[in-house]
Amino acid sequence: MKNWQESRNYRRIKDENGAVIANIITINGVDVEVSEEVFLAYSQSDRRERYITEELEPGKILSLDKLLEDEVPLSKFGIEQEPSAESILLGQEDDQERTSQKTRLANALSELDEDEKSLIQALFFDGVSVREYARQLGVYHRTIIYRRDKLLEKLRRKIFS
Question: Cα separation of 123 and 117, whole Å?
Fold first, then answer.
């Protein structure tokens, strides 16, 4: 038996024909029988750890914090960075909230009269300045500012109520 095999805490028990009877992992001195899938995942993980350890120069310690600090791609060490379940769920909730806000905004915009829609279109989509829009309508620019502020408040109430 090779040196690394003697120190491992997992093994397969085979019958006289060489067929696997059980997959065993020893945890805190207790043998636990596990499925083939769990055994393979555990043994592959152990092999990856041994490989990384063998690749290190003697006396050097591999630190995940140091790797992250040095911006070393963790994929070089067989470490796959996947988003956590929490971040996936939070992302889904954010997407749902954004979709809901877009729907409420579209509904609020559809309820505006033509003058209000024109004001929104000119100032926020066409990039027309308040002064230029006021000139186009022949009104004082403070009037447009007042209308814009009132319209935004109206939209805010409809969207967030």
Answer: 10
Residue 91 to residue 6: CA distance in whole angstroms: 46
Q: What is the pTM of this model?
A: 0.45
What is the chain's pLDDT, residue by residue, as a tens digit (161 residues)? 456 566 778 888 888 888 888 888 888 888 888 888 888 888 888 888 877 777 666 666 667 777 778 887 777 766 666 777 888 889 899 999 999 989 998 999 999 999 999 999 999 999 999 999 999 999 999 999 999 999 999 999 988 87
- Show Cβ contacts of residue 24 under 8 Å, excluding neighbours closer than 6 positions: 10, 11, 12, 13, 31, 32, 33, 34
What are the structural domain ranges in the chain?
A: 3-77, 85-160
1 neighbors 7 (Cβ within 8 angstroms): no
In this structure, whether the domain defined by 85-160 belongs to CATH 1.10.10.10 is answered with yes
Phi and psi, residue 81, nearest 5°: -90, 110
